[in-house]
């Protein structure tokens, strides 16, 4: 079953997860295992939750899954800022990831707001 419409949130969260995996591999090479694990967990869970939300059993389930994805995105934003300020990540790398993370937060927030404000469809 092919998807006929593009899903920007799905695509961007997946691409972001790939970037997070790449960065955490580099961090592991630098023996930054604990911080890498935190970033990897929160940064990749955003896309996984978006995937789950797209298969939600109800409108409430959809909102719940995206709300958790939004929390994970905000946690990831925290770790990225911390890694930048502690000089664990190169500032340029951190800035790119922070910008991508901010974009995900904005998308998630907009979708949640629209879904909560629209009349129930399911």
Protein topology:
Elements (H helix, E strand, L loop, with lengths): L7 H22 L3 H22 L4 H27 L5 H27 L5
Helix pairs in contact: 1-2, 1-4, 2-3, 3-4
Description:
The protein has 122 residues and is mainly alpha-helical. The chain has a domain at 36-117: 23S rRNA-intervening sequence (de novo design (two linked rop proteins), Up-down Bundle), CATH 1.20.1440. It contains four helices and no strands.
Number of strands: 0
State the distance separating the first and last CA atoms.
Answer: 22 Å
Q: Report the CATH C-level class of the domain at 36-117.
A: Mainly Alpha
CATH homologous superfamily descriptor of the domain at 36-117: 23S rRNA-intervening sequence
**Which runs of at least 5 residues are low in confidence (pLDDT < 50)?**
none
Structural category is: mainly alpha
**Helical coverage, percent range:** over 70%
- The DSSP helix count reads 4
């Amino acid at each position: 079953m092919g998807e006929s419409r593009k899903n920007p949130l799905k695509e961007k969260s997946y691409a972001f997860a790939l970037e997070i995996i790449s960065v955490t591999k580099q961090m592991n090479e630098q023996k930054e295992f604990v911080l890498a694990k935190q970033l990897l967990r929160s940064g990749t869970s955003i896309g996984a939750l978006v995937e789950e939300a797209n298969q939600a059993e109800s409108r409430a389930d959809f909102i719940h899954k995206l709300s958790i994805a939004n929390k994970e995105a905000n946690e990831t934003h925290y770790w990225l800022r911390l890694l930048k300020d502690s000089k664990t990540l190169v500032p340029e790398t951190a800035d790119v990831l922070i910008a991508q993370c901010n974009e995900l937060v904005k998308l998630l927030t907009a979708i949640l707001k629209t879904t909560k404000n629209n009349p129930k469809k399911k």
